[in-house]
Amino acid sequence: MNTAAAPLDTARTLAERFADGAAERDRSGAFPHAPLAALREAGLIGLSVPERLGGGGGGLMQAAQVVGAVGAGDPAVALVLAMTLLQHGLIHRADTPWPRALADRIGREAAADGALINALRVEPDLGTPARGGLPATLARHDGGDWRLTGRKIYSTGAPGLAYGLVFARTDEAEPRIGNFLVPMSSPGLRIEETWDHLGLRASGSHDVVFEDVRIPAEHAVDLRRPDEWRRPDSLQQAWSCALLAALYDGVARASQAWFARFLHERVPGSLGAPLASLPRFHEAFGENERLLSVNARLVASLAAETDERAPPAPQEAGFVKLTVTENAIQAVQRVSELCGNAALSRKHPLERHLRDVLCARIHWPQGDAVRSATGRAALGV
User: Fold this and answer.
1) In this predicted structure, what is the pLDDT of residue 130?
2) CA-CA distance, 70 to 85, in Å (whole number)?
3) Which residue in 64, 122, 192, 378 has a CA-CA distance of 20 to 30 Å to 283?
4) What is the pLDDT of residues 62-116, one digit of tens each?
5) CATH classification of the domain holding 302
6) Co-location of 262 and 319 in the same domain
7) Which among 130, 150, 168, 169 is positioned nearest to 207, based on CA atoms?
8) Three-state secondary-structure class, residue 56
9) Does position 3 have pLDDT exceeding 60, yes or no?
10) Cα–Cα dist 89/309, whole Å
11) Looking at the structure, do residues 239 and 368 belong to the same domain, yes or no?
12) Are 17 and 76 in contact (CB under 8 A)?
């Protein structure tokens, strides 16, 4: 990775390889250990780790480009990668609440060993904490350390994670809530393979159960009063929204590429020429190109502002995620409608792209939350 373009070139090359096995991983739900090992070998897992720790020193622009490229090959792999890039984009910031020595160690492990990390936040009863409420996962004092008990669901990458950043509440008289860094090899931690989803089936987003897991005191990396979590974090929102937008835009671009091949190769007997010769397909293909062009500019703008240490307001990052992902869904649906039965045949990748891209609507911030929060603010209510 000697030049700015090298990580993206590497990601594109690897994505072509990942695409060859994506259908089989989708059908079996097998976790993508081999693709992640390839990303590790290429140094892409440490892309957003500072150079002083041995990482790539990449900002959000580079991370989004790489995630988008990998997403075109296998979005389940890209999602696992995106979650690690996101965490390192946040924990090494100047105002990090993490103990600096601990953040540095985690960064070095990602750069040297490809150690994966993800935030484990969602619970069976709570749903996403972003909508409010206290987590049921409990951290209780045990001498100078903590003991953690609870269950997290939709824990993306669980079988391959080195660390989980677990959102929990304390057992104190006035509970605090926040993040505990938990090695996934800890005694008392187990993974229950519950993930059986419409899309992103190889992402390993299983349940993780904690039964009296011992946590060193310094691994309580960010504890706050509950009301302090209600203030949105512009940097976190920018990284999360840009990476998710790039991932699903990558799925749409893979669909568009498949569509182009289909239009050139399909020659109906009644026409005697490829479908690519018909004006109605020119218009449809052009409309998708318009949506993808808009997507590229939106993601690039959000990433550039963030890399310049001026991330936009959280609601604007939400607008980018919502607009880009809805454009991606619209593009894939258009291809599916125009290709007919071929689009839904499991021997072609398009039916998988359609299932995968619909998962964009589930990732936070969801459309209703973006619109409602913005409407309330604009109306002053």
Assistant:
1) 66
2) 13
3) 64
4) 999 999 999 999 999 999 999 999 999 999 999 999 999 999 999 999 999 999 9
5) 1.20.140.10
6) yes
7) 150
8) coil
9) no
10) 12
11) yes
12) no
Name the domain boundary from 87, 114, 141.
114
Cα–Cα distance measured from residue 228 to residue 326, given in angstroms and rounded to the nearest whole number: 31
Residue 135 neighbours by CB under 8 Å, 6+ apart? 121, 123, 126, 129, 150, 167, 168, 169, 177
Structural contact between residues 117 and 62, judged by C-beta atoms closer than 8 angstroms: no
**3 state SS of 373:** helix
Using CB atoms within 10 Å of the CB of residue 68, give its burial: 0 to 12 exposed, 13 to 18 middle, 19+ buried: buried
Q: Are residues 78 and 14 both part of a single domain? A: yes
CB 17 within 8 A of CB 38: yes
- The dihedral region occupied by 222, where left means phi > 0, alpha psi between -120 and 50, and beta the remainder, is beta
Domain boundary among 180, 206, 226: 226
Q: How far from the centroid of its chain's Cα atoms is residue 250's Cα?
A: 12
The 10 Å Cβ neighbour count of residue 169 is 19
Q: Yes or no: say if 326 and 370 are a contact pair by the CB < 8 Å rule.
A: no
d(CA 72, CA 70): 5
Amino acid at 194: T
Q: List phi, psi (to 5°) of 132.
A: 100, 170
How far apart CA 224 and CA 251 sit, in angstroms, is 37
State how far the Cα of 73 lies from the Cα of 112, in Å rounded to an integer. 25
Number of domains present in the structure of the chain: 3
Question: Which residues span the domain enclosing 136?
Answer: 120-226
The band of 230, judged by pLDDT with boundaries at 50, 70 and 90, is confident
pLDDT digits (tens, 9 = 90+) for 291-345: 999 999 999 999 999 999 999 999 999 999 999 999 999 999 999 999 999 999 9
